[in-house]
Amino acid sequence: MASALPASIDETAARLLALDYVAERALATTAFLALKLERPLFLEGEPGTGKTEIAKALAAMLGRPLVRLQCHEGLDLAGAAYEWNYARQMLEIRLAEATGADRERLAAELFGERFLIRRALLQALDPPDGLPPVLLIDELDRADEPFEAFLLEVLSDFQITIPEYGTVRATAPPVVVLTSNRTREIHDAVKRRCLYHWVGFPDAERERAILARRVPGAPEALSRGIVDFVQALRAIELYKLPGIAETIEWTRALMALDAVELDPATVDDTLGVLLKYQDDIARVQGAEVARLLQELRQAAAPR
Ligand SMILES: Nc1ncnc2c1ncn2[C@@H]1O[C@H](COP(=O)(O)OP(=O)(O)OP(=O)(O)O)[C@@H](O)[C@H]1O
Ligand SMILES: [Mg+2]
């Protein structure tokens, strides 16, 4: 059953937290406003920092279904919004020819409900149960630029015009979340229709809170060490910095190895959970890991 929209920023943050999503204040504010003003939420940011996850959390929080459109190169109208079922149309024409059915009537029916294949965008605007879902348009930067032009109608008017069929307009707008990893800039026209938030890496306090939620059994000292190490790693110039997803994975990995604290050998051997480029691993493995751990130990030591 659908739940009411949150009445305040605090309530937004609290309800997300109850679902183990630890939102920073600015994100809770933007999400609250997006819901209240019925505007799409545009999230851009570092990989593995909770962009996709918040759409799932919002759907759970509002008791709405999640409709997900995963963008990719070559994504077009047929993949994103609707498609005519040509095979079925052909079959119907053949049948009609064989049985001598009324041509006029058939022609009128061929572009009707029965032959329309609904993809994510159309499903979100015209949901089967009438309950407006959360529509996640994920990784928009992976789609080709012309696709964005098509999204404009959906984002500003919550409608899609199908030439042979008519305009499908949402009776109640879906909650829309768009994400981008910024491998390219998204067009201003899209951004202008949305509320924008940059999702950066969390500070140590929030990252610890996320770990406490996502890996509840992790020993306190280990979590603290992990977060401090990952935070220090993000200050190094690497090709690809570890996101929250990697911090969580690493914690699980270290727990699976029964580690109680970070030591150079264990860190070196498990770097592949945190870093996914050989150049990055080669850069920190050994001396750099030892240096970072030493520094963190000194910083943590009572003065
Ligand atoms: N604020 C948060 N609170 C709780 N968990 C989080 C938060 N941010 C990220 N996570 C955890 O990190 C994982 C990765 O997040 P998510 O998949 O949303 O990242 P993303 O930003 O979409 O990354 P990508 O750009 O690679 O798709 C989630 O499954 C979730 O467990
Ligand atoms: Mg994602």
TrEMBL record:
A GO molecular-function annotation: ATP binding
SMART domains: AAA
One of the Pfam families matching this protein, by short name: AAA_5
Top-level taxonomic group: Bacteria
Sequence ranges assigned to domain AAA+ ATPase in this UniProt record: 37-237
Protein name: Carbon monoxide dehydrogenase, CoxD accessory protein
